[in-house]
């Protein structure tokens, strides 16, 4: 499998997971968090499949296509070690979906980042809210969601914040 | 169609065209030119589908994955306004396949670059040799090749240097 094959597989898995997540949160209100804007490709997809949803983007250095940059009110500028804790506090228990595409060629760095993000997912997400990521961000009181058929295990990850209401899953 | 959709379509078209080109040149000897290394994704694919072939890469600033960088003997470092004319001269009439992935958000720049590249394709390519590109690089004495079924017109381009031997297409 060439790097071209791997990249196509990754992007198709990303799209399939985001499409599934968009459908799965259709019964929930609340905003979406996009961790990392990059060139704006995924943000553009999210706003296309979730046209009525508020989407907040976290980015250290905005360098996306000019037409893929959210307005300032929906942009958390800075390192997300700083911005994510603040945003999780502000939207505690309200967020419907958090997408995080942060994987690199450095597994140790990625594992540290996944652990950091996983701390704030259960604070920000509402019951039934989802996390989609290209690295394993499994968090406290989460359950993995079945991946779309087209997605090989380990290529993308989907977790749901379990229902904590009495009579819920836990 | 989101930018994510567009990118997936582009990469799949690229892969399909390169795979078709690799098969189409199986009866020809001679090297491959890869214009632009980028992160090395396509170079990695080319060396996977053409393992026995010499591949020369043209790149101004090498910044690929360390395992996707050719040795110095197969690297034309510098602006390809300088390196392509030299290389076309050196390998005149010998090259089996030239791949050029250079499209940007700037159509005027892309058209200028396509015209520049198209000047040197007929010098470098042997009769029957192919050019694959993400912009229209149609050149003198070329004929468009039918695209793979999965590729929408205008997403990728394939041209063949027509046979100039007596009795050939021209």
Write the layout of secondary structure elements.
The structure is a homodimer of 170-residue chains.
Chain A: H1 3-24, E1 32-35, H2 41-49, E2 55-59, E3 75-77, H3 80-90, E4 95-100, H4 107-124, E5 125-133, E6 142-144, E7 157-161
Parallel strand pairs in A: 1-2, 1-4, 2-3, 4-5
Antiparallel strand pairs in A: 5-7, 6-7
Helix pairs in contact in A: 1-2, 3-4
Q: How would you describe this protein?
A:
The structure is a homodimer of 170-residue chains. Chain A is α/β, with parallel strands linked by helices and 170 residues long. The first copy, chain A, has a single domain (3-71, 80-161), classed as Vaccinia Virus protein VP39 (Rossmann fold, 3-Layer(aba) Sandwich), CATH 3.40.50. The first copy, chain A, is built from four helices and seven strands. Chain A has helices at 3-24, 41-49, 80-90, 107-124, and strands at 32-35, 55-59, 75-77, 95-100, 125-133, 142-144, 157-161. Chain A has a seven-stranded mixed β-sheet with strand order 3-2-1-4-5-7-6, with helices on both faces. In chain A, helix 1 runs parallel beside helix 2 and helix 3 runs parallel beside helix 4. The longest helix of chain A is centred in the N-terminal third of the chain and has 22 residues, at 3-24. The termini of chain A are far apart. Residues 165-170 of chain A have low confidence and may be disordered. The A-B interface holds A 2-5, 7-8, 11-12, 14-15, 39-42, 44-45, 48-49, 65, 68, 105 and B 2-5, 7-8, 11-12, 14-15, 39-42, 44-45, 48-49, 65, 68, 105.
């Amino acid at each position: 499998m060439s790097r071209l094959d791997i990249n196509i597989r990754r992007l198709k898995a990303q799209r399939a997971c985001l499409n599934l997540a968009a459908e799965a949160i259709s019964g929930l209100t609340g905003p979406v968090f996009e961790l990392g804007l990059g060139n704006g490709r995924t943000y553009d997809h999210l706003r296309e499949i979730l046209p009525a949803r508020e989407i907040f983007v976290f980015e250290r250095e905005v360098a996306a296509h000019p037409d893929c940059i959210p307005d300032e009110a929906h942009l958390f500028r800075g390192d997300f070690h700083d911005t994510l804790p603040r945003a999780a506090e502000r939207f505690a228990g309200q967020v419907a979906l958090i997408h995080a595409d942060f994987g690199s060629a450095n597994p140790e760095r990625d594992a540290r980042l996944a652990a950091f993000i996983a701390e704030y997912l259960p604070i920000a997400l509402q019951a039934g809210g989802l996390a989609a990521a290209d690295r394993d961000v499994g968090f406290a009181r989460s359950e993995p969601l079945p991946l779309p058929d087209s997605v090989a295990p380990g290529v993308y990850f989907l977790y749901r914040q379990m229902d904590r209401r009495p009579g819920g899953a836990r």
